[in-house]
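User: Fold this; tokens only.

Assistant: Input:
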Amino acid sequence: MTPRSIPEQVAEQVGAAIIEGRHRAGERLTETELAQTYGVSRGPIREALRILERRHLIELQPRRGAWVRAVSLNSIADLFNVRMALSALAARLMAQLRAESFLQTLGRRVDELEAMARRGDADPLAFAYTVTRAIRTIARGSGNELLVEMMVNLANQTVWTTIWKTPLDYLGAQRRRESAARMKQVRDAIAAGDGEAAERLLRGFLEDDRDQAIRVLGRLRGETVDVHRLLHTQARADAGAAKRRKAADRVAVAPPERRTTKTAKRGAARGHVARTGPAAPTPADAGARRRSRTG
């Protein structure tokens, strides 16, 4: 990870306190108190506050100082959803282009994730940083410059940078192993040129990331999120496809005579007779045939 300046370190710590709810909306942050808390002069504190303002975490008011902005759990979920939509599109586009240089870079990122996942004591923040670098590679490999610019703006001008530098996910070894395996599936789908699979797999991966982060933040902040902001579009699509396949399989394996019997029963219930062959002769029919032979 790139070495951080003192203002960046202070901004990350203050930003984490805001995201986690330790600094509440409307609270005033004074340079003097922050300088005492973090053991630095007021110069780095001023720069840290400007960083936090760019990330929309505080509002700097002339002659009044810095004030914490309202950052709801719903707005954080919205940010995850926007980033997820852009990332999933990037995966589909990269699978179409398959530029060798970006494929190699993505392969290295996945190898790094797998190596960290094999270590039970890997740093969750280092793992999250590598996941972010992998998704950044996918964005650049999409060949869509506007998409890349939007992703950069999301990182630099929103709370996103603060979120992923806060330990909200990848906290357990099993979670890291599963995440590394899923990113490898994304990489393989992109390398195979399967844009639909790449988009679906990355979207599912990021939906789980969002849900885990929102659960942790909800506990820290004592806040709930609107369920409509946690839609699982791909899970619903997969469930619908599985239901359709199951219905088709039932029709395919049902024996024809079984269907005929069911049809006959339904017809009988409605007052109809289901005929599957020649009708049996009635006594009246037999008598008519004898009279015709003697006549």
